[in-house]
Design brief:
Elements: H1 2-21, E1 27-31, H2 36-52, E2 56-60, H3 67-75, E3 81-85, H4 86-93, H5 102-117, E4 119-128, E5 131-136, H6 137-143, H7 148-154, E6 159-162, H8 173-180, E7 186-189, H9 195-200, E8 206-210, H10 215-218, E9 221-223, E10 235-241, H11 242-247, H12 250-255, H13 264-275, H14 281-291
Helix pairs in contact: 2-14, 4-5
Length: 295
């Protein structure tokens, strides 16, 4: 009986030692919204973490509803990290009044997310996926157009095209007209799916667009600079739960390797590769990170 008790004690000690040797899995969950730009960014975040840390990444990509469903999941601790846009956080999530200055907007949304949600905005990637005006490349060259203010003087000679509701919204054409004083020769209402074809065929000269849309490259369009900051800024950056960052503090430096690394043109090119050349977002992300020397 005494021998059995001793044996039992030894076995118990062995189990305790083995349990102590087992390491808890280090894991984070990365999410994305359901469009190509977000797939590419989420792949970049995943590859940076897997290259520079021993943390495993679980991906939840293409979440329907985007921010509307990802934000609650972040608060519930079901998602740890995802790429977001400053204007979306400020206007859609926090429902605050527009701040036109891009830097002030970023500082404000960063501060309020920390105090309201305990979520950290890391450094910005460098590009701004906002509303924009784009012109045919030939028109831009002919009239030497760089900014919206440049476009004002030439607008009486040009045709503008946009979907119906852009002409109705105060943050659309009416606001632009009031701020800049555009006076286009003609304004056309177009189906949203036919806008790019219209400017590609020469039916219109100027179109409203998203500034990192891959179709800008396909049709050789030039995005003009909104030099009076009429449109809200949608600068992209990584969001991470403070609890996750406390658990894995090394993630801050790893994820901030993307700081100021992606220009508008580079994001357009990557979106084009995924949307028009059917490349895998994972491969597009890896090549970009390798070319930048980030992995």
């Amino acid at each position: 009986m005494k021998r059995l008790s001793l044996l039992g004690l030894i076995m118990l000690l062995l189990l305790v030692v083995l349990a102590g040797c087992q390491t808890e899995e280090k894991k984070v969950v990365i999410a994305s919204k359901p469009h190509s730009e977000q797939y590419i960014l989420a792949e970049m975040l995943t590859q940076l973490i897997e290259t520079h840390t021993d943390i495993t990444v679980e991906q939840k990509l293409g979440i329907g509803g985007g921010t509307a469903n990802i934000q609650p999941a972040m608060l519930a601790g079901e998602i740890d990290i995802y790429p977001e846009y400053s204007g979306t956080g400020w206007l859609f999530v926090l429902k605050q009044e527009l701040i036109n200055d891009p830097d002030a907007l970023y500082e404000s949304v960063m501060s309020m997310y920390q105090s309201e949600f305990n979520i950290v905005w890391l450094d910005r990637y460098g590009f701004n996926n906002t509303y924009a005006l784009a012109v045919a490349g030939s028109i831009a060259d002919e009239f030497q157009l760089e900014t919206y203010s440049d476009l004002v003087d030439k607008s009486p000679m040009l045709t503008f095209g946009a979907e119906y509701d852009f002409y109705e919204r105060e943050d659309g054409y009416p606001g632009l007209e009031a701020i800049y004083g555009f006076d286009f020769m003609e304004k056309k209402e177009l189906d949203i799916g036919l806008k790019y074809e219209a400017i590609g065929s020469g039916e219109i000269d100027v179109v409203n667009a998203f500034s990192t849309d891959g179709l800008l490259k396909e049709y050789g369009l030039k995005v003009l600079k909104d030099d009076q900051n009429f449109f809200p800024s949608y600068q992209a950056a990584t969001l991470i739960r403070q609890e996750t960052l406390d658990q894995y503090p090394e993630l801050k430096d790893v994820l901030n390797k993307l700081a100021n690394q992606i220009s508008d043109d580079e994001m357009i090119e990557m979106n084009y590769q995924v949307e028009k050349e059917n490349l895998d977002p994972k491969d597009v992300a890896r090549k970009f990170l390798e070319d930048k020397g980030l992995i």
